[in-house]
Write a structure and sequence with these properties.
The chain is mainly alpha-helical. It has five helices and two strands; from the N terminus they run ααααββα. 55% of the residues lie in helices and 9% in strands. The longest helix has 13 residues. The mean pLDDT is 91.
Length: 92
């Protein structure tokens, strides 16, 4: 049985917090900024970002010198629907 992207993305409070922070910000954020905004440990942010990137819900922006930055991928239908749910429920 394969793992559905929703199970990966919504399997922890950390991924929900990361998605909320990225959805509420209109600019890419560093891991450190995400960590500060979510209150999660650095190791948890790294693990949860890797999950979200693996299913295509988060994009990685790499610069030549600057640290990697992360942006929610609104090209994915599930992400757009989830953002609507977050807004409708007051989570965002």
């Amino acid at each position: 049985m394969s793992v559905h992207p929703l199970e990966v993305a919504l399997g922890s409070v950390g991924t929900l917090r990361i998605l909320r922070v990225l959805m509420s910000c209109n600019k890419p954020l560093t891991k450190y900024a995400i960590q500060k905004a979510t209150g999660l440990k650095a190791v948890d942010v790294k693990r949860d970002l890797e999950k979200l990137i693996s299913i295509g819900w988060v994009k990685v922006l790499k610069g030549p010198v600057a640290p990697e930055k992360f942006l929610v991928n609104r090209d994915v239908e599930e992400v757009r629907v989830l953002e609507e749910l977050f807004r409708a429920s007051g989570y965002l």
